[in-house]
């Protein structure tokens, strides 16, 4: 089987020698690309091709990474691609990644594409827990990641459940709390809503500014042993070399800034570092493999070069890039403010339209109510007129009966004289007739008064009807003057005019206002840092009661202890570097 494999490799090698090109696959954080490369190409030729394709000019941060027997390696620029220990199978796969990290992302990263690639790579490392991130910072970083993807928060668009498919938090953080996915989304959305007004690029930069303060950000760890054979970890980053205990990757035991290191070299598995102070002894350590020593040396040289470069005047190329970036940011700021003003004007116009529509509906309701009142008045007037007519007829009937009663009384008086008995009877009947006549008269009078009252009620109902008609006429007149029945271009004309004035004023004052904002940045930095810390503390307080203490990892416990002691990445580095180089070397050897 071994002979067959050797024959196959020899056959592949023969084919590759005869071919003029070989294929490579480049995996970036956003996409994959394939290229045909000439056989004679060096690592720099392939790297430059990838950078040109991406439009990347800040090339010094990046490299092409590949794997050798479970070990990471970086393509060397000065050697031919095929002469290095790359895969023999085509397409040869490389990962285009950040090899070196900036000390201050906001000051050093100029191009948008550079910022984007760093953002995606750091986000991936945090989610895969290669960089330890405390829970409260994870929530805040997740909110900026959401903003970088979706832009400004809009409650009409970003409704509950819109983050259900997003991977935003490390599994370690999710398992550490008794919180459902909905509860996490609620916390992240609450922070996301506070970022309103930022662009996606600004959200990415805010993410990096928070992430660069994490203890494991930008650190490459390697297992080493000192002279005593103690197992330790070597950390290489933008500031220098750091020595850690294997179980604690957060807090180094001692650190050596790049400006204190004179020379770095290795022989086989032994690594030698010479301090700048010649009176201080060199310190040595052993790594597991020669290949690891090569990788350590590459990272040390690259980080040291960038450390020195940052402290010198920028090259003409970098100055040009920063100038172009400032101009582009200023242009984007002007454009963003213009769009913001147009959006504000549009919202004001929409509010005015909504107010007119609301007023129109109100007037229509009032007109409807007035119509109903008028209809009721007309019905009441008709009813009262009918009652008045009935009362008049009843009064006439009563008057007729009263006249008949009077006639009957006269007849009784004439006949009463026929006899005493008849007279007495007739007197009694006459008395009854008089009583009846009196009652009839009173009833007639009462009916007459009722008829008069009904006439008055009828008159009042007609007056109410007339007032209702006047009210309806008044409402209709108002609607004519305030309804959107005016020419359709009346509001937009005013809006266009306002836009023209705003645009004119803006052109005159933009650059002055922008320069004032730049002057304020240094003053605002401290306030922003304070606000960020307050925001993190508030998030921590909100979710602390739901934490499951038994699920804390060793790094979580160490981070909590550092926080209680007020120890941060920067303060610890300053504290360690205050010690003399000699004492730090001695401390390292005694570990």
Structure explained in plain terms:
With 591 residues, the protein is an alpha+beta fold. It has four domains: 21-98, Roll (Ubiquitin-like (UB roll)); 112-212, Acyl-CoA Binding Protein (Up-down Bundle), CATH 1.20.80; 220-312, PH-domain like (Roll), CATH 2.30.29.30; 318-415 and 424-477. 62% of the residues lie in helices and 12% in strands. It contains 15 helices and twelve strands. It has helices spanning 2-18, 43-54, 105-108, 112-127, 135-150, 171-175, 181-194, 200-211, 290-310, 316-415, 420-482, 490-544, 554-565, 569-577, 581-590; strands at 21-27, 32-38, 62-68, 71-74, 92-98, 220-225, 231-236, 240-244, 254-257, 261-267, 270-275, 283-287. Strands 9-8-7-6-12-11-10 form a seven-stranded antiparallel β-sheet. A five-stranded mixed β-sheet has the order 2-1-5-3-4, sandwiched between helices. The two termini are 48 Å apart. Mean pLDDT is 81; it is low at 1-9 and 479-515. It is found in: Cell membrane; Cell projection. Keywords: Cell membrane, Cell projection, Coiled coil, Membrane. Residues 22-311 form the FERM domain.
């Amino acid at each position: 089987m071994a002979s067959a494999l050797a024959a196959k490799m020899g056959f592949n090698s023969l084919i590759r020698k005869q071919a003029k090109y070989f294929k490579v696959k480049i995996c970036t954080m956003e996409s994959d690309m394939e290229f045909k490369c000439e056989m004679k190409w060096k690592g720099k030729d392939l790297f430059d091709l990838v950078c040109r394709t991406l439009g990347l000019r800040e090339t010094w941060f990046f490299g092409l990474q590949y794997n050798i027997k479970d070990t990471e390696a970086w393509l060397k620029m000065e050697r031919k691609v095929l002469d290095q220990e790359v895969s023999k199978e085509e397409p040869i796969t490389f990962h285009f990644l950040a090899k070196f990290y900036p000390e201050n992302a906001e000051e050093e990263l100029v191009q948008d594409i550079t910022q984007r690639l760093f953002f995606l790579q750091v986000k991936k490392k945090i989610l895969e827990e290669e960089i330890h991130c405390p829970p409260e910072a994870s929530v805040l970083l997740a909110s900026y990641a959401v903003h970088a993807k979706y832009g400004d928060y809009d409650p009409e668009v970003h409704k509950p459940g819109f983050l259900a498919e997003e991977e935003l938090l490390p599994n370690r953080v999710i398992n550490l709390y008794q919180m459902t996915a909905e509860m996490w989304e609620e916390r992240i959305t609450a922070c996301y809503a506070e970022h309103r007004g930022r662009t996606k690029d600004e959200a990415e930069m805010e993410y990096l500014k928070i992430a660069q303060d994490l203890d494991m950000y930008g650190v490459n760890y390697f297992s080493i042993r000192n002279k005593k054979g103690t197992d330790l970890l070597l950390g290489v980053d933008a500031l220098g070399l750091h020595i850690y205990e294997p179980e604690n990757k957060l807090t180094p035991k001692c650190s050596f800034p790049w400006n204190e290191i004179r020379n770095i070299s290795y022989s086989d598995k032994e690594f030698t570092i010479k301090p700048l102070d010649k009176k201080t002894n060199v310190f040595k350590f052993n790594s597991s493999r020669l290949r690891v020593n090569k990788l350590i040396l590459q990272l040390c040289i690259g980080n040291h070069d960038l450390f020195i470069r940052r402290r010198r005047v920028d090259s003409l190329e970098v100055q040009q890039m920063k100038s172009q970036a400032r101009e582009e940011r200023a242009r984007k700021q002007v454009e963003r403010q213009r769009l913001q003003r147009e959006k504000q004007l549009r919202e004001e116009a929409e509010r005015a339209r909504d107010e007119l529509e609301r007023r129109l509906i109100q007037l229509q309701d009032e007109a409807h109510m007035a119509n109903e009142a008028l209809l009721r008045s007309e019905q009441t007037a008709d009813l009262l007129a009918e009652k008045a007519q009935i009362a008049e007829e009843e009064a006439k009937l009563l008057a007729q009966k009263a006249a008949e009663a009077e006639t009957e009384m006269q007849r009784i008086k004439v006949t009463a004289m026929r006899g005493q008995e008849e007279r007495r009877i007739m007197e009694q009947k006459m008395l009854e007739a008089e009583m009846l006549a009196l009652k009839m008269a009173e009833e007639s009078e009462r009916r007459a008064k009722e008829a008069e009252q009904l006439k008055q009620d009828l008159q009042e109902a007609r007056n109410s009807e007339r007032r209702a008609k006047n009210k309806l006429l008044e409402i209709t007149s108002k609607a004519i003057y305030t309804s959107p029945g005016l020419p359709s271009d009346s509001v937009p004309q005013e809006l266009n005019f306002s836009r023209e004035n705003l645009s004119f004023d803006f052109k005159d004052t933009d650059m002055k206002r922008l320069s004032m904002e730049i002057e304020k940045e240094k003053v605002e930095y401290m306030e922003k840092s304070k606000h960020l810390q307050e925001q993190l503390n508030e998030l921590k307080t909100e979710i602390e009661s739901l934490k499951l203490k038994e699920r804390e990892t060793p790094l979580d416990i160490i981070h909590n202890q550092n926080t209680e002691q007020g120890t941060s990445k920067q303060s610890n580095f300053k504290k360690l570097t205050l010690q003399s180089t000699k004492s730090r070397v001695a401390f390292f050897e005694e570990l």
